[in-house]
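User: quick one, fold this
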Amino acid sequence: MSRTLVLEREATGATAAEGLRDILPAMIACIPIGLLFGALSVGKGLSVLEAGLMSILVFAGGAQFAALELWTWPVPVLALAFSTLLINARHVLMGASLAPKFGEFSLFQRLLGASVLTDEAWALAERCALRRQLTPAYWFAVAATLPPLWVGCTFLGAWLGSFLGEPRALGADFAFTALFIGLVAGLWRGRDTAITVIVSAVTSALAYVWLGPPWHVAAGAFAGIAAAWCAAPPERSSP
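Assistant:
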């Protein structure tokens, strides 16, 4: 392929077909994670309907798993609400990151697109924007496919319940970790990325040991932001 054709392809907007291709690995990884959450939910005493409604209304895997860790009877409503707010605060940062790339989106598309924002969709959109114009077709192909799959797998996992046995014994809980390792690898940019990932991971691990969830999420996020800012090369002033 000639250099001209490559440049023309990079200048065009990303398509829905490309979005579906890119999100497919995340969709596959979402299946065991959703089943795991559903099975753990009924183990905590939730009904199949309650587990499914949590995925519909909250739609945030990290916050939902954190809620299960804190789930006792009577339910600590304030603690659950605060942990959800703290963990999902990262969406503010992801939204701010994507805002400039949503230049071709209408106001309705921006609002609707924000309602299905996930870590996976954000990472793929950022990777797309490095070389291509981020289009509504690509974004919704990436972002709108995960919600029904997540909710469906939650219902299925909750319904199967005890039939699945102990999901962690099968290594299903590692699917979450493996998915994010793949997302980070897709955004890898050498030394700066390595510094950011290491600082964020170490800070999050220490916060988890010293403070416990959900503080480790916020600590890792802010440490990663600070590390990325420090590691970024200074902008050269134009002559």
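User: anything notable?
Assistant: The mean pLDDT is 80.
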